[in-house]
Write the structure tokens for this entry.
Amino acid sequence: MTAHHEITAHAKLVEEVATAVQAVPGVAFLRPGLADRLRSAPARPTPGTGGAPPAGVRMTRPDGEGPWHVEIHVVALRRARTLDVARLVRSAVEHRLDSLVPAQQTPRVTVTVTGLV
Amino acid sequence: MTDRTDPSNSAFTHADDELLPCGRLVSRTWDDWEQQTDDAHLRSCPHCRDAVRGLDDLESVVRGLRAESADTSAYDAEPLTRRIMDVVRLELRPGRPLPLGEPAEDLWIMEAVAARALRAAAETVAGVRAGSCRLVDARVDGTDGTCDSGGVRLDIHAPVGVSLPELTDRVRARVWEAADRELGVVLASVDIRVTDLVAGTADDGQEGRTP
């Protein structure tokens, strides 16, 4: 796989995870990333996608081929219990990744609630 | 599961970089948007317009979410713009994360977010105004490295002419309940400090004031 394809695959994985998180009941939206967008003007598109990556999802593999470390920054609805929402988000990420890359080791998922609306 | 350590925020924080290309601070432009300041620069500058376009988009999203919700709690009555600004200001100054849930779950909430919810809960007691709200992370302060529950230290202004022990008991109960039911944070202690006594006003008889 070329570097370009790896970047594209990674960006698609991030998009898939972002979509799964946004579908979780009690999630208002991913961290908006407004400050990031302003600071990177003109916006730097993600190679291969033509768009900026979701600000609230970061996926890394600290050990190269080891398990993913997925960091989610999310704004939750106040009417839902924050802890329950965070647990559902973690669960959604784990399930989505398991279906997308089933052979991978269990990811480490970190969820941070950065706002309530 | 992993050992609990602070989540890596390196990719999310740029607290020292707020300057727009036009020379204005992002925070000032956002403040002006919130205050609806009539400013010719704000209207004409493309960088400032970009800075508030995202806020406009966010306002539309949050307005839609509120329309879907039947929630009529005190916190929900806050001005829409303030709630949006709470979210975006945390992007500039994210503060510190506090653990949510059980040890090793790797779930977090930003201290300012939790503090706002607890202050709003305290202010549902008639006549109470909440001030500084500090959440203590026992995990950091503890000596054995375990993830014990933390506590909250809340300053309030109390109305004159009421029993302070009874009042603080009610505030403590509201804060405890909000931490458990709304956030899911188990508090080891709720320390209330009455920092001032204030004369009541006409609207103090109604519970549900928001900050």
In short: Chain B has seven helices and five strands. The helical segments of chain B are 26-35, 40-44, 46-68, 80-92, 111-122, 138-141, 164-183.
